[in-house]
Amino acid sequence: MNLALRPARKSDAAEIALLVNIAVHGQMASGWAHDARAADTYEPLEVGRLDMLRDDTDFGWRHATMAHVDEEIAGMLLGYAKDGPRKPVPDTVWAPLRPIQELEETASGRWFISMLGVHKGWRGRGVGSALLAHADQLAQASTTRGQALIVEDANAGARKLYESRGFSVTTSRPMVPFPGAAPTGTDWLLMVKE
Asked: For a Cys staple, 64 with which of 8, 9, 28, 37, CB 3.0–4.6 Å?
């Protein structure tokens, strides 16, 4: 297997949106389908693609790394330094995202792995580990102290991978279901690596 990593390009926005949705077991697409911007798009992932195209946010293409084998995208890491002091989560944040954003804010001062998604055919083949090793390099090159990520309590495979890389659970928040999506767990877990 000839696995390579590269910084995302703006043209990767649709693939990034797909892998974000995969990372949260399809729940983002349920949210995107209920977004007002979804009218006449015919596909909820189009809303995600529009989000990933933005240049003015950490949660977009500029902070993604693509893993590929030859010409096939195998996975994606989206992460960034959570610089500055912890900020309160605004009351206007959509309810399903609120517990996630609350946990992310407790990760202030760390390099935050916002999303790690791997296509089904590439899971268990070292793609996630390679992306996490890359996150280690990015975190070491930053001014942050350690790393953090959020995972569903029911995602045993991902938790096992993260624990093998030195992450441990520090706190949690109850999940708020995305409209139209059956929750796959009961809690979001914040995992930290010093």
From this structure: 8
What CA–CA distance (Å, rounded) separates 31 from 96?
Answer: 8
d(CA 64, CA 60): 7
Residue 131 · residue 75 · CB < 8 Å: yes
Mean pLDDT of each 10-residue bin along the chain, 194 residues long: 95 96 83 76 85 93 96 97 88 91 94 96 95 96 94 92 96 88 85 95
pLDDT for the residue 94: 85
If one counts every other C-beta atom within 10 angstroms of the C-beta of residue 33, the result is: 17
Neighbours of 90 (CB within 10 A): 8
Are 139 and 109 spatial neighbours (Cβ–Cβ below 8 Å)? no
What's at 129, amino acid-wise? Answer: S
- What is the gyration radius of the CA atoms in the chain, in angstroms? 16
- State residue 28's pLDDT score: 77
Three-state DSSP state, 159? helix
Chain Cα centroid distance, residue 73: 16
Contact 35, 47 (CB under 8 A): yes
CA dist 148 and 139 (Å) reads 10
Q: What is the pLDDT of residue 163?
A: 96
